Amino acid sequence: MAEREHEHVRVAVIGSGFGGLGAAVRLRRQGITDFVVLERADSVGGTWRDNSYPGCACDVPSHLYSFSFAPNPEWPRNFSGQPHIRAYLEKVTDTFGLRPHIRFNAEVRSARWNTDELYWEIETAQGALTADMVVSATGPLSDPQIPDVPGLDGFQGKVFHSARWDHDYDLRGKRVAMIGTGASAIQIVPAIQPTVDKLTVFQRTPPWVMPRADRKITRAEHWLHTKVPATRALRRQLLWSIRELQVSAFTKRPKELGLVQALAKAHMHRAVKDPALRARLTPDYTIGCKRILLSNSYYPALAQPNVDVVASGLKEVRGNTLVATDGTETEVDAIIFGTGFHVTDMPIAERVTGAHGTTLAEEWKDGMEALRGSSAAGFPNFLTIIGPNTGLGNSSMILIIEAQLNYMIDYLRQLDVLGGRIALDARPSAVHAWSAAIQQRMERTVWKTGGCDSWYLDANGRNTTVWPGTTAEFRKVTRQVDLAEYEVLRTQPGKVTEDAGTTVEAVA
Ligand SMILES: Cc1cc2nc3c(=O)[nH]c(=O)nc-3n(C[C@H](O)[C@H](O)[C@H](O)COP(=O)(O)OP(=O)(O)OC[C@H]3O[C@@H](n4cnc5c(N)ncnc54)[C@H](O)[C@@H]3O)c2cc1C
């Protein structure tokens, strides 16, 4: 093969959140140093860099929402806040010597599979390179979604998304609209309610909210977790086990969630005395159908005199007046969108072109699917971290990420064992069979039977985001790459093509 004139790496990782940084650590631990991490921003952290809104914190206890290989005995609270999680990721980056691998301000603009050379051609904001393998860790909740509301362009006040908080804008004394009542909104509302003059919450669908068992982690606990690491491991194990035991209620026996629903109702009754407000805040679907939210301060904030809950979505903006679908009109100075992210239409999918000349977005136009949550057919040597049907409703996404990283390492090992210039392409039959089995399991889940419309569902009403099992099961099914599920592609120097001097043939 002719000597390459461009930079080539073995692995190009896209993104430097938990997924990308985790991939980098695992690669280095495997002795693989020929890789880069391409990050569009100017620092690491992903979710925990971009979401700096007041009150931002994780919903899963920190001792579980962290890497198994990088325990942190110093977590300040059960549910640590965004600054601490971001600092943790910065520390992981330094501790594991990842900085030399990271290219900041290097947004990936396109990645195209070269079928002759069996590598990815990647265009970034910092130039081009090629890679044997791409690990896409661009995050499912990374690109904010602002609905296309008629008249929004004419609004004279301040507008921003929760994931792009404008810290220069002073909310004191302002009339503010919070659009949406999802996981971010319910953290923002109690954080800003005491500051603003008036807060109007536009609620299309009320969430079920449970108490949040948050507290400071004591000095004694810190000491114990530092001096006796087994106690830290035990704590993680307990947190994990409790969540594993909850899974079957979500996936097989939604009726068992009745008791949880009663607890959530009692939680609301304790804080909201006004029956009319309670009626507006009571969901009409089974708990768990949409993500269960945790907060001790959301309902008390909604009960404050400077807060209004409009039980309707935002339909239109007329000047500085917001018009809800139910006709309610509210004049505001600022609009904060807590309207989520492009989850089932990931922007990176439009930028990745596979072996058949089509983009991942085109392949996924009827719904995302990927073998074991990682490999799409026609996209050789391309793995998605937190790909289709890998999301969790009740536990830590870091468990899923680490399982997928096991798969990545085994994938690279299999390429090594097979030897030569080689690629693995998921067989369409294997991908469809995997996806069909998941969809069949989905039928009994609360996400399907619970009577709600959620961001877990795509435009066709299919749940292509959530994993319908335990994390232990996911770990098991991603432990090893099953070569029978892949076509093995090789360049064959003996067979010369017109321009590349190589041809590609399926050999398995
Ligand atoms: C507010 C909030 C709270 C959350 N709380 C929890 C929780 O409590 N528990 C839980 O399990 N999960 C939670 N999540 C989900 C969370 O997203 C995941 O747990 C995890 O952080 C995802 O990590 P990631 O690396 O896959 O993605 P991200 O953290 O989103 O990182 C993706 C990175 O890719 C970069 N990127 C994207 N596109 C490109 C491109 N084209 N080129 C180069 N770089 C690119 C982005 O800049 C970003 O740095 C929360 C999410 C949000 C938004």
Q: What's the overall average pLDDT, rounded?
A: 94
Unreliable runs: 494-508
Query: What best-fitting shape do the alpha-carbon axes yield?
Result: globular
* Distinct ligand kinds: flavin-adenine dinucleotide
Query: What's the number of structural domains?
Result: 2
Helix count equals 15
Oligomer: single chain
CATH class bucket of the largest domain: Alpha Beta
Cα-to-Cα separation, first versus last residue: 23 Å
Helical content (DSSP H or I, runs of 4+): 25-40%
User: Strand portion, in percent?
Assistant: 15-25%
Structure, described:
It is a single chain. The protein is α/β, with parallel strands linked by helices and 508 residues long. The chain has 2 domains: 2-142 and 342-507, FAD/NAD(P)-binding domain (3-Layer(bba) Sandwich); 152-213 and 240-337, FAD/NAD(P)-binding domain (3-Layer(bba) Sandwich). Helices cover 30% and strands 19% of the residues. It has helices at 18-29, 47-50, 82-95, 185-192, 219-227, 229-251, 258-271, 275-281, 298-302, 348-351, 360-363, 397-418, 428-442, 446-449, 471-477, and strands at 8-14, 35-38, 102-103, 108-114, 119-124, 127-136, 158-161, 175-179, 198-202, 209-210, 293-294, 307-310, 314-318, 321-324, 329-331, 334-337, 352-353, 382-384, 422-426, 486-492, 503-506. Strands 1, 2, 3, 4, 5, 6, 17 and 18 form an 8-stranded mixed sheet that branches. It has a 5-stranded parallel sheet with strand order 7-16-8-9-12. The longest helix has 23 residues, at 229-251. It is globular and about 75 Å long. Residues 14-20, 38-41, 46-47, 51, 56, 58-60, 65, 107-108, 137-139, 141-142, 184, 348, 385-386, 396-397 line the site of flavin-adenine dinucleotide. Its EC number is 1.14.13.-. Belongs to the FAD-binding monooxygenase family.
